[in-house]
Amino acid sequence: MEQIERLAHVRYTSGDELAEALVGADALFVWDFQSSALERAWHAADRLRWVHIASAGVDPVLFPAMVDSEIPLTNSRGVFESSLAEYVLGVVLAFAKDFATSLELQQQRIWRHRESERIAGTRALVVGTGPIGRAIAQLLRAVGMRVAGIGRRAVDDDPDFGSVYPSDELRTHLPDADYVVAVAPLTPATEGMFNAASFAAMKPTARFINVGRGDLVVTPDLLAALQAKTIAGAALDVFDTEPLPADSPLWSLPNVLISPHMSADVKGWRNALVELFADNVQLWLQERPLRNVVDKQLGYVPTGAAARPAG
């Protein structure tokens, strides 16, 4: 943050003290991207002209007063795409090559030959066609998987997905997928989109991978599908309650891989977040269009979006 401190007076604060720090502030950098403190402190934002969040998802700061305001919101799109795609490919390989069983047998010193699955030629359905979804599609296609996408509207001959189907056709296309990857932004339209009916539509050999938002999933429905083997397994990096409670049955299911909301967090990610914000600070001070301006009605950054700070 040193480069930013040379350009402006910077106050560091916590969620509990945000209201006091917001008084007189022109811009806010929300570092804790899971915090809902801004809504509680909003009454103190007497001259706020710009909010930036250190994540791609913006749902924690999309409360009604913020949405209705003229204050622009920017996110950290561009930092997480490649690392998230690598994570998804990694768990696809972990499932197909049954690494979990290999590790278990190794710990027991048991030599047991097994056959594994091929991933080339399998089908992946990526739910969410923004930059992260596209990076995932590109990497999965590079290893020979056949990829389709679910987005807001249908697209034929998409350069990354081939075919993109509208979100209201999700259940129509779930039965075709060997891997279903959830990376959609959390909006009123996507909340709970993976429910009992969605899992029932998937083939029993399919795996579900969630690197988007925990609230995209109705967790009890996912748990029931895994316990009943309606689907073959799941890799879960995000949850509706974080940290995942120690008494959650998900921890003990043999067909589940759990990671603690870290799929995008490679070495150097914090520096990359600060560098992106610093670049935007320069643009903001020069009254030039900002990068990654969120459409607050949609809940994400539309293609080519830019705007000047409100003032």
Automatic annotation (TrEMBL):
Q: Does the keyword NAD apply?
A: yes
Q: Where is the D-isomer specific 2-hydroxyacid dehydrogenase NAD-binding domain?
A: 90-263
In this chain the D-isomer specific 2-hydroxyacid dehydrogenase catalytic domain maps to 14-294
Keywords on record: NAD, Oxidoreductase
PROSITE patterns of this UniProt entry? Answer: D_2_HYDROXYACID_DH_3 (PS00671)
Give GO terms: molecular function aspect only.
NAD binding; oxidoreductase activity, acting on the CH-OH group of donors, NAD or NADP as acceptor
Q: Which domain of life is it from?
A: Bacteria
CDD domains given for it? 2-Hacid_dh_1
Which family does the record claim for this protein? Belongs to the D-isomer specific 2-hydroxyacid dehydrogenase family.
* Protein name per the record: Phosphoglycerate dehydrogenase-like enzyme
Q: Which organism is it from?
A: Tamaricihabitans halophyticus
Upper classification of the source organism reads: Bacteria, Bacillati, Actinomycetota, Actinomycetes, Pseudonocardiales
